[in-house]
Amino acid sequence: MWFTRFWAAKEAVAKAEGTGFGGRPRDFTVLDASPAGDRLTVAGRLARAYRVHCAPAANPPRLPTRSYVVAWTTGHPTAEEYDTP
Q1: pTM for this entry
Q2: CA distance 50 to 67
Q3: Is the backbone of residue 20 left (phi > 0), alpha (psi -120 to 50) or beta?
Q4: What distance in Å separates the CA atoms of residue 71 and residue 5, rounded to the nearest whole number?
Q5: What are the pLDDT digits (tens) for 25-60?
Q6: Residue 63 CB: number of other CB atoms within 10 A?
Q7: Of the candidates 38, 44, 43, 40, which has an alpha carbon nearest to the alpha carbon of residue 52?
């Protein structure tokens, strides 16, 4: 599920910047992730870092069982948050 979290986090940052991936997802870098994987720091093309939150999601009852990840940005981390290991 880590790959999916990283991909969703990069995509959230690409959308926040208004650029999309443009065929270049490697332009976005995951810099840090919490042990649970619910908070990540991702560098984009336009900014040093974005704070990204991830949460698991699943299909509702009566649909095939599948797991997903939802990611959203909440702004730029402060210097203190960015430098915390």
Answers
A1: 0.81
A2: 25
A3: left
A4: 8
A5: 999 999 999 999 999 999 999 888 899 999 999 999
A6: 8
A7: 40
